[in-house]
Design a protein that fits this description.
single chain; 184 residues; alpha+beta; Alpha-Beta Plaits; SH3 type barrels; 2 domains; 5-stranded antiparallel β-sheet; 4-stranded antiparallel β-sheet; 3 helices; 20% helix; 41% strand
Length: 184
Amino acid sequence: MNNLERKWYVIKTMSGQENKVKSYIENEVRDNGFQEYIGKVLVPIEKVIQMRKGKKIYREKVHYPGYVMVEANLEGEAVHAIKNVPGVINFLSEGKGPSAIPIPMRKEEVNKMLGKIDQLSEGYESISIPFVVGETIKVIDGPFTGFNGTIEKINEEKRKLELAVLIFGRKTPLELNFTQIEKI
């Protein structure tokens, strides 16, 4: 069935349209019989937890915005079929212009990318921290609800913040979870 050697290539796309480009390429393969030329099409996605208004929001985020990876043998009409997909800018290539030759990814890069995709999709490991040291915040949960404080330290592993709160004119140190505070 596929005796043609396929390599992994990177396609530059319009940012935010990676999933559309992926489905268009898959439809092109299915509708025009490019199965022996084009294999997998990947958009690496990572699962992220964000804190919004004290609540955890789980969402998926494109790991490489503006890029789609495709396993293909770029012979014949397959190249033109991919380049003509709406949202595709071009292949990552040497040189510029229409005569630029697409560069295949190195084996190490492919293995790293495929391993990274598995790792990213395993669980909600990373959390984007919307706070910075020195920022003034408001406590929304616990015995100090309503007090304002200044972030002095962020501990990512414990998912806690150390802050200084003014109580009766004196700075009092507190350690709170990300869910117990909000930006002012």
